[in-house]
């Protein structure tokens, strides 16, 4: 079996994924890192030099590749389930269990504020108000895809360790 972590930017997919992988002794794969290695470019460089459409095509290609693997904890990019047939590919992948890590807008704003620069979609937003408004609309659009996940785990007010244990307890 594999666990696929889904959620908005800043929802803790990579941190929780790494923790989970240690607990269950599965390989951890972060799709953004996988793309960066394969393309030999950082995510901001891909967006800047090749554009978002190129990034989405590669994201789709590499998602299909990693979904073939088993016994992995896979953390996706925030947009991965929301393009093309990606969510269907995730739901239909053999042995894959998808989990939506659901965070509130204020906690996403708090976590993303110091990390905006690495994220091309929000790097231009200057004030907390702008970021809050953007996330509000974007999350509303994306929730349609996120909520199709096999399981939803609310992350607000919980430590990484507590979230990881909650997932392990529900699955193993
Ligand atoms: C994106 C999220 C990022 C990365 C890219 C696009 C998105 O991943 O894939 O910048 O569309 O939400 P994280 O969710 O890991 O920040």
State mean pLDDT (0 to 100 scale). Answer: 97
Bin the helical content: 40-55%
Widest sheet, order of strands: 2-3-1-4-5
Give the end-to-end Cα distance, rounded to a whole number of Å: 11 Å
Radius of gyration: 15 Å
| Total domains | 1
CATH superfamily: P-loop containing nucleotide triphosphate hydrolases
Number of helices: 8
β-strand number: 5
Structural class: alpha/beta
Which word captures the global form? globular
Write the SSE topology.
Layout: E1 2-6, H1 13-24, E2 27-30, H2 31-39, H3 43-50, H4 52-66, E3 72-75, H5 86-92, E4 96-102, H6 105-112, H7 128-146, E5 151-154, H8 160-171
Parallel strand pairs: 1-3, 1-4, 2-3, 4-5
Report on this structure.
The protein is α/β, with parallel strands linked by helices and 172 residues long. The protein has one domain (2-166): Rossmann fold. It has eight helices and five strands; from the N terminus they run E-H-E-H-H-H-E-H-E-H-H-E-H. The chain has helices at residues 13-24, 31-39, 43-50, 52-66, 86-92, 105-112, 128-146, 160-171, and strands spanning 2-6, 27-30, 72-75, 96-102, 151-154. The protein has a five-stranded parallel β-sheet, sandwiched between helices. The protein is globular, with a radius of gyration of 15 Å. The model has no long low-confidence stretch (mean pLDDT 97). Bound molecules: shikimate-3-phosphate.
């Amino acid at each position: 079996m594999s666990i696929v972590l889904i959620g908005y930017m800043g929802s803790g997919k990579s941190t929780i994924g790494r923790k989970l992988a240690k607990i269950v002794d599965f390989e951890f794969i972060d799709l953004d890192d996988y793309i960066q290695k394969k393309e030999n470019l950082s995510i901001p460089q891909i967006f800047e030099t090749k554009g978002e459409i190129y990034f989405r095509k590669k994201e789709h290609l590499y998602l299909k590749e990693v979904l073939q693997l088993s016994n992995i904890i896979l953390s996706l990019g925030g947009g991965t389930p929301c393009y093309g047939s990606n969510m269907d590919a995730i739901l239909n992948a053999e042995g894959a269990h998808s989990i939506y890590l659901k965070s509130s807008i204020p906690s996403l704003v708090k976590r993303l504020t110091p990390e905006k620069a690495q994220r091309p979609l929000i790097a231009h937003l200057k004030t907390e108000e702008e970021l809050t408004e953007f996330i509000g609309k974007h999350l509303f659009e994306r929730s349609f895809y996120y909520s199709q996940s096999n399981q939803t785990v609310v992350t607000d007010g919980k430590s990484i360790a507590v979230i990881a244990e909650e997932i392990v307890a529900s699955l193993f």
